[in-house]
């Protein structure tokens, strides 16, 4: 029996070891899957849908080739609706995954241009590309001829703030990404040249063999058990060939029968037929008795205890253990960090060259107006300080608008580095606006936060905030009335009708240019001249973003005019160095009008709240000057 068990163990061990090794070698699964296609028609843009990128689980590796100039090729990905909005009015090749063939397929899409930035694409069948059967795309390029629609020159997607990630030039040849289903990839050159026409997406495959190691180890263990059983059986078999036990005690001798002495009357040797039959009957009887005795004893000596094999218990396997519908935020935090770095670089370049054209690439509205004026003043006044630089990082607060339309608004607070003397500087708060999908974010407001400013509780950047309408009655004061009300406070101080609405504590702008400062300026004017102040809301759009307590962060533009007039014939007023740099007039016999721009950020509590409107930050400076006629 032991030999049989040993043979079974050997066979099972061999099967287990061979199966384990085969799983790691002959039957090892592939390490990746690849779907590829060659796109015909020389399209300027190729869009790979998110469903195609997620046709198989795992990180996607996108390979592109076939661009006329690899240095200009661009691979970027963003939300599918954003990609379609950027392609509004353009023709592109849409790449999807064909489940039947397991390869990529393309069709031409001509999207309709829309004002809101979203698109309703209309697809027209395109020649079916020949999929590449190998992991790398080896299919021949598509038709050399191209349709007029697909060959139409368009804008370049490079450098757009709309993308979540972007790869340019050689970096776009092979890109690794892990995008969800709602994200698509756009592949292009510079818009004037055809896009790369060979695309391939590769996914990793789980090539692990979890049973290989247990099978090999289990087979080796079973092999050892088989060898042990075989040696045990061999040992037992050899022992069974010798005497099983010592001989038992000898049988006692039978008592001798008394000798028969014949008498004279009886013959010694009986004669006749009867006497012979009697002797023969006595001998067998004696033999039968002796055999009976010896047979019983031998049977008892030869009988050995029977050994029954014990069946091993079969183990029983244990039973196996058993914000919807809300628009996404306009940008992600990594996307915003990249945008702020681009703005910081552009602002530093424009400030260093005092070039308003460069500044206009990243600034608009009041922020651009103030920078243009500063450049003009610095060109004629060497001691005029530059405006605070836009730091590139770190972003300490991000509040994107929750929307899927345009324009889009994003608020960011960036920590400023220490100045040259090592003193801390106030953080810079920016309001960024993107008017259309193809526009980059521009700085509309840039303010320095107040030292004691307390930013209210805001929504996380992963959710975003809603934009409050300018005429909303749900706030303590509608956003479009905040600028005028605060301007009146700067003009009249505590005597203003709106003074009770605003918190005076921590408001450093009021102490700098408020009613008391204006009174001192008027008192310092000679009798031959007069000084008057007026304030009006600026032309820039009001931006209001909701807070978690139903209030809002409100950004407004306020402009204040300072008119210095001559009131006595023959008198003359001096414009001052700053106003002279902007107006070109050093002195005037009629008067000088100077315009100051105020970019203001407020926290406006909800209607019915006992809290007051608080100034969070501001930026101010002269933005214009002219001679009064």
List the helices and strands and how they pair.
Layout: H1 2-24, E1 32-38, E2 45-48, H2 50-53, E3 60-65, E4 74-79, H3 80-86, E5 91-98, E6 103-111, E7 121-124, E8 165-168, E9 174-177, E10 183-188, E11 198-204, H4 212-240, H5 273-302, H6 333-353, H7 356-359, H8 365-380, E12 395-400, E13 408-414, E14 428-434, E15 442-449, H9 479-492, H10 508-513, H11 515-523, E16 529-537, E17 543-546, E18 552-566, E19 573-574, H12 577-583, E20 587-588, E21 591-604, E22 614-627
Parallel strand pairs: 2-5
Antiparallel strand pairs: 1-11, 2-10, 3-9, 3-11, 4-8, 4-10, 5-6, 6-7, 12-13, 13-14, 14-15, 15-22, 16-18, 17-18, 18-21, 19-20, 21-22
Helix pairs in contact: 1-4, 8-12
Identify the notable features of this structure and list them briefly:
7-stranded mixed sheet; elongated; 24% strand; 629 residues
């Amino acid at each position: 029996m032991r030999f049989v068990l040993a043979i079974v163990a050997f066979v099972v061990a061999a099967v287990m070891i061979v199966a384990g090794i085969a799983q790691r070698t002959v039957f090892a699964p592939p390490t990746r899957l690849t779907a590829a296609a060659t796109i015909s028609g020389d399209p300027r843009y190729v869009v790979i849908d998110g469903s195609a990128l997620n046709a198989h689980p795992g990180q996607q590796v996108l390979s592109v080739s076939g661009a006329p100039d690899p240095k200009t090729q661009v691979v970027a990905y963003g939300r599918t609706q954003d990609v379609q909005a950027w392609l509004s009015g353009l023709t592109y090749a849409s790449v999807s995954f064909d489940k039947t063939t397991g390869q990529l397929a393309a069709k031409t899409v001509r999207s309709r241009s829309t004002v809101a930035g979203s698109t309703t694409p209309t697809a027209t069948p395109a020649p079916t590309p020949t999929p590449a059967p190998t992991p790398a795309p080896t299919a021949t390029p598509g038709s050399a001829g191209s349709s007029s629609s697909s060959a139409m020159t368009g804008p370049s997607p490079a450098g757009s703030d709309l993308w979540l990630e972007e790869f340019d030039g050689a970096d776009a040849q092979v890109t690794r990404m892990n995008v969800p289903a709602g994200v698509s990839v756009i592949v292009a050159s510079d818009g004037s040249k055809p896009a790369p026409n060979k695309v391939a997406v590769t996914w990793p495959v789980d090539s692990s063999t979890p049973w290989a190691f247990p099978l090999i180890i289990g087979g080796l263990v079973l092999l050892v058990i088989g060898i042990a059983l075989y040696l045990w059986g061999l040992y037992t078999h050899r022992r069974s060939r010798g005497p099983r036990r010592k001989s038992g005690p000898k049988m006692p001798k039978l008592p001798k029968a008394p000798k028969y002495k014949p008498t004279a009357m009886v013959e010694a040797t009986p004669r006749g037929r009867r006497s012979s039959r009697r002797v023969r009957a006595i001998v067998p009887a004696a033999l039968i008795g002796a055999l009976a005795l010896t047979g019983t004893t031998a049977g008892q000596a030869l009988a050995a205890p029977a050994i029954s094999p014990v069946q091993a218990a079969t183990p029983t396997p244990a039973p196996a253990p058993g914000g919807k519908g809300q628009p996404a935020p306009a940008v992600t935090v990594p996307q915003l960090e990249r945008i702020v770095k681009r703005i910081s670089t552009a602002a530093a370049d424009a400030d260093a060259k005092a070039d308003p054209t460069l500044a206009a690439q990243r600034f608009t509205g009041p922020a651009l107006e103030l920078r243009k004026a500063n450049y003009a003043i610095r060109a004629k006044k060497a001691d005029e300080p530059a405006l605070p630089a836009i730091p590139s990082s770190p972003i300490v607060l991000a509040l994107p608008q929750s929307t899927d339309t345009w324009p889009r608004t994003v608020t960011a607070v960036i920590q400023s580095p220490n100045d040259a003397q090592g003193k801390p500087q106030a953080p810079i708060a920016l309001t960024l606006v993107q008017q259309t999908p193809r526009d980059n974010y521009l700085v509309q407001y840039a303010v320095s936060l107040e030292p004691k400013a307390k930013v209210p509780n805001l929504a996380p950047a992963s959710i975003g905030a809603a934009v409050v309408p300018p005429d909303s009655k749900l706030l303590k004061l509608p956003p479009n009335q905040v600028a005028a009300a605060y301007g009146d406070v700067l003009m009249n101080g505590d005597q203003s009708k709106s003074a009770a609405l605003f918190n005076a504590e921590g408001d450093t702008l009021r102490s700098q240019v408020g009613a008391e400062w204006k009174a001192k300026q008027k008192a310092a004017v000679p009798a031959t001249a007069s000084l008057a102040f007026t304030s009006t809301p600026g032309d820039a759009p009001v931006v209001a973003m909701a807070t978690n307590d139903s209030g809002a962060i409100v950004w407004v533009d306020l402009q204040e005019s300072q008119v210095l007039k001559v009131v006595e014939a023959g008198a003359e007023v001096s414009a001052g160095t700053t106003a002279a740099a902007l107006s070109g007039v050093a002195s005037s016999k009629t008067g000088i009008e100077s315009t100051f721009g105020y970019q203001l950020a407020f926290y406006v509590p909800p209607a019915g709240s006992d809290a007051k409107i608080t100034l969070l930050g501001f930026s101010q400076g002269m933005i214009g000057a002219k001679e009064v006629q």
